[in-house]
Give the backbone structure.
Amino acid sequence: MHAIEKLLAAKAGVDRVHAGQIVNCDVDVAGINDLYYQTVKSFVEMGGQRVKHPDDVLIFFDHYAPCATVIQAEDHKKFRQFAHEQGIANLMDVNQGVCHQVVVDRGLAKPGEIVVITDSHSTMHGALGAFGTGVGATDLATILITGKLWFKVPEVIKITLTGHLHPGVYAKDVILHILGDLKADHGIYKAIEFAGPALKDMTISERLALCNMTTEMGAATSYIQPDDRTRNFLKAKGVTDYTVYTTDEDYHYQEEITYDVGQIGPQVAAPADVDNVHDLSDYQGVHVDQAYIGSCTGGRLQDFATAAKILKGHHIALDTRLIIVPASGEVTRECIARGYIQDLLDAGATLSPSGCAACIGIHQGLIAADEVCMSTSNRNFPGRMGSLKGQIYLASPAATATAALTGQITDPRDYVEAE
Amino acid sequence: MKTLRTGHAHVFGQNIDTDQIYPARFIEYTEEADIKKYAMAGSDDPDFVQETQPGDFIVAGTNFGCGSSREHAAITLKGNQVGAIVAESFARIFFRNAINLGLPVITCPHVHAHVQPGDQLQLDLKAGEFKNLTNGWTAPVEPLDDYIMNILSHGGIKPLMRAMTSQGKVRE
Ligand code: SF4
């Protein structure tokens, strides 16, 4: 069996499972974000009275944090009331940040556990050996009532990464390259596992970015076998109680693919599909109106460290704005403590509160028609960050910071190596 | 659940994402009466709501419903009484959301090339067969797992769970 199968079998209380089988599993972390008050409505419509395991439930105020409209504020108010009535202590208020990063910051995504959030990028938690998957509101309401949810055991695609990343090239470039190669529907219902020697060099932050974007391939979940890096990362958070499953030697992968990351240069996903991926150099010189560093894909400490290094002591281009949104309150505080925010503000950046912000085109940095935004986030379809006629290029934090500096799409390697 | 369904076709392409089905700017609505007003508002056919009739089918290529987890995408189609969605493949979360609402989501390879907008379509869920009554094209549909059929036959997960909670089968 695959490690994921062993995990699902354990959570379903059975000895064996196989791909395609439907299993009903105990859920360890159930997260609801503020877009989906529908979850509470479904809970009530299904006859729910008490949440079965309120301690396993988190409510995140992230997409609307802080609220921009009265309807959003009303939704938050109703959620607060629900949390209060049901004894849900983990209400992550508007100071906390994007659900996925909050879960990671708090050490709640652990090897061998099931993390289900009403958000598609829950695949990210596979980077820490958890079974992370996104569901809709009514599925989450089912968990509120029963503590369980059904899953179809996925087939697994193994992506082996070999070689060494060149300076100025990051996990984000790797996952964009893979998306461009395999396309947006390659992983539907599948689990994507990353393995190989190049992965050993990657930080947890980079692994999270890899797994986060498997969602754009349609993947149900993703997985990285926990190693010393994983254990050390969790240990630093005081987390040591978890189960690491390993894949049997004779497990048969549905597909095995290898990429040499040393062959990959800076990439962009050009408008308006996430799999419309090209070498960044093909778009060199395109004017950038807004550079956006943030989101659950590209808004972590390491991302701001990279950006600050490029921009420290310089000023962004005259006709370009740079919006920075650390993914969580913890990331914000750490970035401040290390001086990154100061460096970026000095360079002309605009700091926005932690949360989803313009990644989902609701508030805090929307773009106008015909404007170009380069973003460290994960989706670039029309209207995602504002006007339907806006153009979004997805890239690494280094490429995005470099674009802010020069005002146009620019190869970041020239700016990173100069350090 | 009605196992034999007929309706007219509304045809969409590949990778129809949840922002095309239900744009993010309307997400803050939580009532079906509001949500149903914006079905397909971000797609090539923004007049879908005015044009659709109860029981009409949506036909699409691969990866229908990709993108976000928003249940609004399924709620808005259900609110417009879409009879079935027949596509070459579905994004996973959309598939789950639709089943939970009792909306048949049917996987049928190659369907996109064989249906024109307005064609009269027929779906026989029992026999597992899809038929384009306008041009005679017939194809088997991928069978749904028993677990999923059980949810659909109750009209979705809500009636099913309601039955369980009221019978005390779920201990809270
Ligand atoms: S940051 Fe963007 S991609 Fe991540 S959860 Fe928020 S809206 Fe979704």
About this structure: The two ends of chain B are 29 Å apart (CA to CA).
